[in-house]
Design brief:
By secondary structure, the protein is an alpha+beta fold. The protein contains three helices and four strands, in the order αβββαβα. It has one domain: Nucleotidyltransferase, domain 5 (2-Layer Sandwich). Strands 3-2-1-4 form a four-stranded mixed β-sheet. β1 and β2 form a beta hairpin. The protein is globular. The termini are far apart. It holds the Pfam family Ribosomal_L18p.
């Protein structure tokens, strides 16, 4: 029987997460996208804490434009919060999503904001 779209993404997510992990010095930037919104978190996996987060639902993020433009704005917002927390280098976790479109726009926005990965 064929796997559903969600089951495929979860399989890919498990494979990706088996290879990467975040620490306090090199946190993991985890991305989640729904049909309407996009979310990003900087996570320290050793202590199990979220260091910073940003989403398209926040008031500080410019909510005008296409979903791709909003994703880039979320990337810049998470980069600004990371800089404020003293974080410059990260590990990118696409969370099983294809690195294309909104996920790529968020990553490019984070790079423009000064994060290195």
């Amino acid at each position: 029987m064929a796997l559903s779209k969600l089951e495929k993404r979860i399989r890919i997510k498990r494979r990706v997460r088996g290879k990467i992990s975040g620490s306090s010095e090199l946190p993991r930037l985890s991305v989640y996208k729904s049909n309407k919104e996009i979310y990003a978190q900087l996570i320290d996996d050793h202590s199990g804490k979220t260091l910073a987060s940003a989403s398209s639902r926040e008031k500080g993020v410019d909510a005008n434009g296409t979903k791709t433009e909003i994703s880039a704005a979320v990337g810049k917002a998470i980069a600004a919060k990371a800089k404020a927390a003293g974080i410059e280098n990260i590990v990118f976790d696409r969370n099983g999503f294809v690195y294309h479109g909104r996920v790529k726009a968020l990553a490019d926005g984070a790079r423009e904001g000064g994060l290195k990965f």
